[in-house]
Amino acid sequence: MASETLGEALDESLAPELDERVPAPRRRWTAVLAIAAVVLIGLNLRAGITSAAALFHGLQQLLGYGPLVASLLPTIPVLCFAVAGAATAWLSGRIGLERSIALALVLLTGGLALRGFESVELLLAGTVAAMSGLAICNVAMPSFIREHFAHRTSAATGTFTITMAFGATTAAAVSVPLAAQLGSPTLGLAAWALLGAVALAAFLPLAVRSRRRRLAGGKRHVSPWPLLATRMGLLATALFAIQALLVYALMSWLPFVMISRGLDPAAGGLILAVVQVVSIPAVVVLLAMATKPHLLRPAFMLTASASLAGYITLLVLPPQLGLIPAVLLGLGFGVFPLLMLVISRSGSSAAETTALSTLAQSVGYLFAAAGPFGLGLLHDAARSWTPPLVLMLAGSALQLLLCLWITAPQRKAQK
């Protein structure tokens, strides 16, 4: 993975999925657009979430909402990922994979722009619309990668995950200063609609030229629900659920945790940015390990163990040493790309990949919604972040066990 370049991914992406009768220059241009899509959608996929997390304190002060709305806001993304994500397989079967992603980018851009108004109702509505767009992209991108980068899934998955982390890092680090420059935290949120508009503009040629064709393997739609009766379906869904709960609870509340312990809002956002920055080289190393079958389990165990250690240090160390848990938790974010790589390689067709991705993400995110919402209410009731962090520590221990089980030799029995 580390040695594979985007150029290599481009070369490998040209042939298998494209009609051989299409001229080579057009095939190459389609492959260039596919790489641009991976990069630009990756940049958008977490920026709308981490930008809000960094601004939650300022938004609550400006708009004056209570603890219920404060707990609901970081929960909306996960609920949207569950509900809208469940419909992605059906939607891609009806209008095509690329057009489904284009529709998702329209929702994302419009929703982010809507959050610029100083209204609790529009803030909630815009968050629902934007996060629904992200949900469709979440589920559709493993299939998009399989369709366009069949022989370079590790390189494309790594590129996608790294750009996703870079977008999240940038949003977490600059949203507070950006909002200060614009004079309002709501405008600081809405500014990220520009990034969504760039992705939409770059992706439209792919969507316009796409045909509503059957996915590779001859099937347009495979129901995800029977996969719950399989070992891979159960383990992928369970692992996705627990890692999503941990990741989104952390992205939603980590700046708030650090602020409540005495750091200023900009420093709290920077701690979250460090988590994201560390995850970038971690993804490169972990996916490089995962290209070798005998190192897949060590890669999973390394990142899951780092996550466990991160929550322990977050509990026991003072906020002035917040960089230590931030580094460990950044390494712990590697569970997601490893699991997405396993999903993107699953099944015998892109339709079957979409089915497993839909199952894992829709059911997983529905369960994970309890994280941001429940932890916010628990903190409000306990007046302390210690009980929520103890629960997250227990969740990271369960994640470690699931990583061990999903990488057991018999994991190949997927069907």
From TrEMBL:
For this protein, the record's Gene3D superfamilies field holds: MFS general substrate transporter like domains
Keyword field: Membrane, Transmembrane, Transmembrane helix
Show the GO MF annotations. Answer: transmembrane transporter activity
Which residue spans traverse the membrane? 31-56, 68-91, 100-117, 123-145, 157-180, 186-208, 228-254, 266-287, 299-317, 323-343, 355-377, 389-408
InterPro entries linked to this entry: MFS, MFS_Cyanate_Porter, MFS_trans_sf
Name of the protein this chain belongs to: MFS superfamily transporter
Source organism per UniProt: Arthrobacter crystallopoietes BAB-32
Q: What is the phylogenetic placement of the source species in the record?
A: Bacteria, Bacillati, Actinomycetota, Actinomycetes, Micrococcales
